[in-house]
Amino acid sequence: MTVIHHRPPWRDTLVSLRVRNYRIFTLSNMVSMTGTWMQRIAQDWLVLELSGSVAAVGITVAMQFAPMLLFGLFGGVFVDRHSRRTILLFTQLASFVLAAALAALTLSGGVQVWHVYVIAFLLGSVTVFDNPARQVFVTELVGPKLLHNAISVNSSVFQLGGLIGPALSGLLLVAVGAGWSFALNAVSCLFVVAALLLLRPSELHRTTPAVRAKGQLREGLRYVASKPAIFWTVAMIAVMSLFTFSMPVLLAAYARDVFNAGAGGYGLFNTLMAVGAFAGAIASTRRLGIHLRTVIGAAAVLGGLQAVVAFMPNQVFFSVVLVGVGFANLLFITGANSLVQLSSNMGVRGRVMSVYVMVLLGGQAIGGVLMGWIVETYGAHVGMAISGLMPVLAAGVIAMILLRQGRMRVRVTLRSAPRFITIVPRADEESRQSFVA
Questions:
Q1: pLDDT tens, position by position, 87-141
Q2: Could you tell me which of 77, 67, 75, 192 has the C-alpha nearest to residue 129?
Q3: Are residues 342 and 431 in the same domain?
Q4: Do 282 and 220 sit in the same domain of this protein?
Q5: Are residues 289 and 418 in the same domain?
Q6: Is residue 1 part of a domain?
Q7: CA–CA separation, 302 vs 332, rounded Å?
Q8: What range does the domain containing 315 cover?
Q9: DSSP track, 67-98
């Protein structure tokens, strides 16, 4: 990996887009992500309208992410053995068929909650292969030198879709219903298929697929457990997935039960989070590097902000803090993604990323139901507070474990220093060497 010692000039903020293959893939990805966000918002609101239950929205989230929890590790092994480009072609075609089926059911007026559950589960099954393949394929598009920048650009594109998609979906929900959001998402999948066919294979940074052999799944798990930067990042992701990333459930409850804002308000809340996340994605491109302490600290900040949201007295303050939540969310998730990819060998990266994605999405399968139950039982405010306080607690515990393992302690000073907070060795304090926190 190329080590960067100085921040790149602003003209190089999106330097990875100078690579033709990556530029084509990213432009199609922007269209696809907009469609994905449209479907996600419309799907959750459709279930809420059909069932009248926030818990049902949580079940929808669980159905979509359960396949990754059950089969995610096998998806990573499959990705390591086969062409990522071919995998993405098939997954995008499958996503097109499923989105078109949901659109047809909804526009015909025959859609029922169980239809949404089944299609959500099937889409989640597609994600088992699509997500790890997409993560690893970025390296083939840009090479290792531009990987960190490309990950940040990917996040920017995802959040730009999150900025446009919920707004469009909210407008369509109010004007013509959920069906057209599903139809447009189906069309967006075809843009990715076209982009994959337009790529120049000769310009890809190909990696040799792993040879089929016994024990490859166990090998990937041992690798994750042996690398502290990966293991503790995945542990933090697990907590965030269970409690913090179930925002569709929480925002649906706030839109309907707290502020009476309806479908338009639900779309607005998601758009505001995407505004902050998009700003965070741009900020992440300016990072020189990423460290485990940065990821754990970002998780604590995100959790703290999300807990603050629970106590906002009105919709205006709630909306303003949501932008901050989106910003912190993106800094955390891009940091975690970058650290895991940059810390793993290409020979096992598919399996490592499948563990990461399994925890990230599979945790939300459990978290969606859990947070739905908490909101139904104790109310939206309690649910939002728990979603923020749990990662703060987890970040504190992980930080203490890491400090003890490294025989370090935290020092706080009000004097001039590189940072007000530093981490220093506990022994031999007079000759200690400070490490910037």
A1: 999 999 999 999 999 999 999 988 899 999 999 999 989 988 998 888 788 888 8
A2: 75
A3: no
A4: yes
A5: no
A6: no
A7: 8
A8: 15-205+216-405
A9: HHHHHHHHHHHHHHHS-HHHHHHHHHHHHHHH
Return the closest-CA partner of residue 132 out of 65, 193, 80, 96. Answer: 80
Q: How far is CA 297 from the centre of its chain?
A: 17
**212 closest CA partner among 87, 342, 72, 74:** 74
Determine, yes or no, domain membership for 259: yes
Strand partners, 435: 423
Q: Is 128 a domain residue?
A: yes
**151 shares its domain with 167:** yes
172 lies in a domain? yes
Amino acid sitting at position 310 = A
DSSP 406: T
Q: What Rg, from alpha-carbon coordinates, does the chain have?
A: 22
Indicate if the pLDDT at residue 63 is higher than 60: yes
- Check: CB of residue 37 under 8 Å from CB of residue 266: no
List pLDDT tens digits, range 179-200: 899 999 999 999 999 999 999 9
- Give dist(CA 76, CA 186) in Å, integer: 25
What total number of domains does the chain contain? 2
What average pLDDT does range 308-326 have in this prediction? 90
Beta bridge partners of 410: 423
Asked if residue 91 and residue 176 are part of one domain, the reply reads: yes
Q: Are 372 and 99 spatial neighbours (Cβ–Cβ below 8 Å)? A: no
Q: Are strands 421-425 and 435-436 parallel, antiparallel or unpaired?
A: antiparallel
Same domain, 59 and 111: yes
Amino acid occupying residue 144: P
State the pLDDT at residue 407: 55
DSSP-derived secondary structure letter, 176: T
In terms of domains, do 166 and 65 share one? yes
How many angstroms separate the CA atoms of 332 and 124, rounded?
Answer: 23
Residues 152 and 257 in one domain: yes
pLDDT tens per residue, range 235-261 = 999 999 889 888 878 888 898 888 888
2: tokens are 């190329």
Structure tokens at 176: 């013509």
Contacts of 373 (CB under 8 A, 6+ apart): 55, 58
Rounded to whole angstroms, the Cα distance separating 15 from 22 reads 11
